[in-house]
Amino acid sequence: MMKLKQLHLDLSQRLEELSEDVSTSRFLECLQDWLRQELGKFSSETVQRYQLAELATIEFERYPLQRSSMNPTEEVRRLIAVSPSSMETLAMFLRDVLRAGITVSSGVWCPNCDSAELVTNFDEISQKIVYACDRCIWAQTPEGSPLGADCHLVPATKIVLEQFGAVAPKN
Ligand SMILES: [Zn+2]
Q: Mapping DSSP to helix (H, G, I), strand (E, B) and coil, where does residue 89 land?
C-alpha cells in the first residue's frame, strides 16, 4: 500500500509541473516517461494484462493524437484527484488514458454494452480496420458485422487510417 501511495504521489507531482494548457502530446509524453521509469514496480501479470510495456514504448508521432477527443487538462486533474485503490487500478488508469490519447473514436456507439463509442483499431490478423469497445469485449467491422475472438487489435496508426480512407489528420 505504501508503494502505491508513493507512486501516485510521484505521478501527481510530475503532472502538476505541466502547464494549465498542456497539449495532448506533452501530457502523454509526461505520463509515458513516468511509466517507463516505474514499470518495474508493477507485477509482470499487471504489465502484461494492461500492456504497460507496449504503452511505455509506443511512438506517439505515429498516432493521430490531435484527433483524439481527450482533454489533457481534465485528465491531469482527474489523475491527481483520484487515488487508485490498487496497483491494478493504477495500471488500468494509465492504460485507459494512454490508449484514449492515441486512438480515434469511430462515431459508432457500442451495440453490446451501450456505454461507450467504439474506437478505431487495426486487426493485425485480418489486416483490416476494426471498431472495438474499450468497456466490453465487443468488436465489429466498420460495416457492423461482429468479430470473433480470432483477432489481434492494436491502435490504428496514422498510416493505417490513411490507407483505409479513415480521414487522417494533417500534420
Ligand atoms: Zn461495449
A: helix
